[in-house]
Design goal:
Chain lengths: 340, 255
């Protein structure tokens, strides 16, 4: 098994570089699993458009990024937002408008959508962050409903029709995104950029404080942390990345519509994150893939989609609360101690 | 009076018609160990929460080094060097022992908002964190999560985390509550050690430890100061003895 030896050699080398982490039990095994997953995931992502329908995989990637952004907030800051559709859908409108009406570069259009979502996140966050739990969720829901009505009423959004026929355009003026493969790898690159930023954030000095706040906010305050500012930054980052996902989705489907700003969309991202496993990096990706796949599959049958998804959600909450990835990681981690 | 580091003036806290703390005057001298004792419901923890601004007072003022901190936010009070612990052990359960201490050290490094930097930027703190962990005898637990520690060890970790801020005043809320005999001795010794170069204000039920550690004791009853002074003096006070309902003031029992 030459493959395993290389991986474990890589992992022990990595452990040697990071002496601080070597003490934790199970870290070595975790690292091996992680590296294997990264290699596997990247090759699968690169090969996916040759096996699966590219638009389907791109949809999965957009929702996966959306769920990852949401997870940054709930999984690492402990904040349940019920208004993330406003960032996702809002950015979709801005990106669609920038690409179609202003004729901007696709990457720049997505960046504008991302920036818009970040600013919106700053406003939402500033208003909601002082409240806890259900009140926080309710304020974000109320604010996102306002965005929904704005999207319905404002002239540039196209009301019920949305913004249709959004051109994918030429990336940096040279790469034609109308070619499915080019578009696919562009979306993959956007997803990876977002994912890596989230991974980096979780493991950054900021991420450490965020986790401390999630675990025990009063204690974090007593250590001198002005916790509201950290939560606000987490909220803005999460909103911006959700916007990046929404903007990308607008280019993939060449459409920004009301569906993206409905409260159901906010609910869907909660579902994806919880199903996959909140507080795990890969959970939201798996959850998003699962929900998108299920939606596609059920659309071809006569089964009512919300009922099936609702039933799965109930089972998830009752049987495996950690979510798919959370449960797997837990099993993997607890096995060595059982062997001992 | 220049040696008063923390002072409460006519501190009052009302909760919906119930007065938990009534006109409390308290003066904590720099470099001393000051204990707050009293029967259950005497308002000790409320006084604690008021002093660290975790609760806003209804009336009265709080002075820290002569500066009025009554209107400050709790995080800012902590930044001034007035750091508290909690009655229920306050650790970050899913962080390792090392990370618990490191997160306290991290703030002064000034990169706590840097979400784009790697974890390696925190490794410079590992030596200091290890020294603090060693000081509370937790070295063998360094890589374990705080949730895995036995109760007494969690309290020790909490003290290490508090010490990481190098606070001028440490406020310990029942640091020995729920501890076994062995843990009590170890923690009491630890408190004595850390009190050598700072001020400690603590709420504690274990009278023998209080008697042993404290320079000054303030007895609270029904939200008011009943007596104040060194243990020998306070323990002879008839009212105090009555408040404890004959519980031996020789310190064997818990109040």
């Amino acid at each position: 098994m030459p493959d395993t030896t290389t991986t474990s050699a890589v992992s022990s080398a990595a452990t040697a570089v990071l002496p601080g982490r070597a003490a934790a039990p199970g870290t070595d095994r975790d690292r091996t699993v992680r590296i294997a997953l990264i290699v596997l995931g990247l090759s699968a992502a690169a090969a996916a458009p040759f096996v699966l329908y590219p638009v389907f995989v791109m949809k999965v990637l957009c929702f996966a990024l959306f769920a990852c952004a949401f997870n940054l907030l709930i999984g690492y800051a402990g904040l349940l937002s019920f208004g993330h559709a406003a960032f996702f859908g809002g950015a979709a409108y801005v990106t669609a408008h920038a690409a179609k009406v202003w004729g901007l570069d696709p990457a720049l259009s997505i960046l504008l959508g991302t920036g818009f979502a970040g600013l919106l996140g700053l406003v939402f966050g500033a208003l909601a962050i002082r409240r806890q739990g259900i009140y926080f969720a309710m304020i974000t829901l109320a604010l996102s409903q306002m965005i929904f009505f704005l999207a319905l009423q404002m002239p540039f959004t196209g009301g019920e029709d949305g913004i249709q026929g959004v051109p994918r355009g030429m990336l940096f003026g040279v790469i034609d995104l109308n070619r499915p493969l080019a578009m696919y790898y562009f979306v993959l690159a956007v997803f990876l950029a977002g994912f890596v930023l989230i991974w980096r954030t979780v493991h950054s000095p900021f991420g450490q404080v965020l986790k401390a706040i999630r675990e025990n906010e009063a204690r974090a305050v007593s250590l001198g942390y002005r916790t509201e500012r950290y939560k606000l930054l987490a909220f803005v980052l999460s909103a911006a990345l959700a916007g990046m996902a929404g903007g990308t989705k607008a280019l993939v489907f060449q459409l920004a519509s009301l569906t993206d700003v409905t409260w159901q969309m906010s609910g869907e991202v909660v579902l994806m994150t919880l199903l996959g496993g909140m507080g795990t990096l890969l959970g939201p990706v798996v959850g998003a893939a699962f929900v998108v796949m299920l939606g596609n599959y059920l659309a071809a049958t006569s089964l009512p989609v919300p009922v099936v998804i609702g039933a799965i959600f109930v089972v998830c909450v009752l049987v495996f609360r950690r979510g798919i990835v959370g449960e797997l990681a837990h099993r993997l981690r607890s096995r060595p101690s059982r062997d001992r | 009076m220049h040696d008063t580091i923390l002072e409460a003036v006519e501190l009052t806290k009302e909760f919906k018609g119930f007065t938990a703390v009534k006109g409390v005057n308290l003066r904590v001298r720099r470099g001393t160990v000051h204990a707050l004792i009293g029967p259950n419901g005497a308002g000790k923890s409320t006084v604690f929460n008021l002093l660290t601004r975790f609760l806003p007072p209804t009336a009265g003022r709080i002075l820290y080094k002569g500066r009025d901190i009554t209107a400050m936010k709790p995080a800012d009070v902590a930044r001034l060097g007035l750091v508290r612990s909690f009655q229920i052990s306050a650790v970050f359960p899913h962080l390792t022992v090392l990370e618990n201490v490191r997160v306290a050290l991290q703030r002064r490094q000034g990169n706590s908002f840097h979400f784009w930097r790697g974890e390696a930027t925190l490794h410079a703190l590992h030596d200091r964190a290890a020294a603090l962990i060693e000081a509370v005898n937790l070295a063998p637990w360094t890589g374990h999560t705080a949730a895995e520690l036995p109760y007494g060890r969690k309290r020790a970790l909490e003290i290490a985390t508090t010490l990481a801020l190098d606070p001028e005043v440490m406020l310990l809320d029942e640091p020995l509550a729920g501890m076994g005999h062995e843990d009590i001795e170890r923690t009491a010794a630890l408190i004595r050690r850390v009190a050598a170069d700072r001020t400690v204000l603590m709420v504690e039920h274990n009278l023998s430890v209080v008697a042993d550690l404290s320079d000054t004791i303030t007895v609270l009853r029904r939200g008011e100061v009943l007596a104040e002074g060194p243990y020998a003096e306070v323990s002879r006070n008839a009212e105090v003895m009555e408040a404890y309902m004959g519980a031996g003031t020789d310190g064997a029992g818990h109040a």
